[in-house]
Design a protein that fits this description.
about 30% helix; 4 helices; 3-stranded antiparallel beta sheet; about 220 residues; alpha+beta
């Protein structure tokens, strides 16, 4: 009888025996571990795709915003570079401009010619026969007084002494008593006359009186 049981165990179903061994092995190792990645967001490539798409959209939006700002600044930064701080138009290509006004203002030098905003005007002794000899770098330091149409005379200013001359760049520069009129870049405020008597670009610069002559206090 014992021999029969032993033989039955030894010669039993091989598949059943293998299944029993595997179950015991699995019980000894604990919970089964899968060799495949977790289907969660960290392990599933499809789960990560929407995140990367959203990130791409966000980066694209930032890039477009920066580009638009640069274009706007660039545009804003380009108009300022071409502006004349004195309101004059040194070039005929700058477009139409309002008529220039020549007025008079009391100062430490006497009653001197100024523009419509009270900014001092000068003559250049190098100019001859009403023709400007101040161009290039000279015109940057001494911007010509340029206006559209016929210049207008302020109160007390001799309208018959007003005129215009055509500059080398085509601009129409205002003249008074035959002298082309200029500003000085060193004058910060209306009424300043820091350019008076300066010897610059080959000749001297002076403010003008109502008679169209230079005012020389030296």
């Amino acid at each position: 009888m014992n021999t029969t049981r032993t033989t039955a165990r030894a010669g039993g179903n091989p598949a059943a025996t293998a299944l029993g061994l595997r179950r015991r092995s699995l019980r000894g190792r604990g919970p089964a571990q899968s060799t495949h990645p977790s289907p969660g967001p960290a392990g599933n490539p499809r789960a990560r795709s929407p995140r990367f798409v959203r990130l791409g959209w966000a980066l694209s939006g930032v890039a477009l915003f920066v580009l638009a700002a640069a274009c706007s600044d660039g545009g804003a930064y380009a108009g300022s570079a071409g502006a004349d701080p004195y309101g004059a138009a040194p070039s005929a290509s700058s477009g139409p401009h309002p008529a220039a006004v020549v007025d008079v203002r009391a100062s430490a030098l006497g009653r001197t010619l100024v523009d419509g905003q009270g900014r001092t005007l000068y003559l250049f002794e190098a100019d001859e026969a009403g023709k400007s000899e101040c161009n290039g770098g000279c015109a940057s330091a001494w911007p010509p007084y340029v206006g559209g149409g016929s210049p207008q005379a302020g109160t007390g200013v001799g309208g018959s002494l007003l005129g215009t001359t055509t500059r080398d760049d085509g601009g129409r520069q205002v003249t008074y008593g035959g002298h082309p009129l200029y500003y000085y870049a060193g004058d910060a405020e209306p009424g300043d006359h820091a350019g008076q008597g300066l010897d610059d670009f080959g000749a001297k610069w002076y403010v003008l009186g109502l008679d169209g002559a230079k005012i020389d206090t030296e």
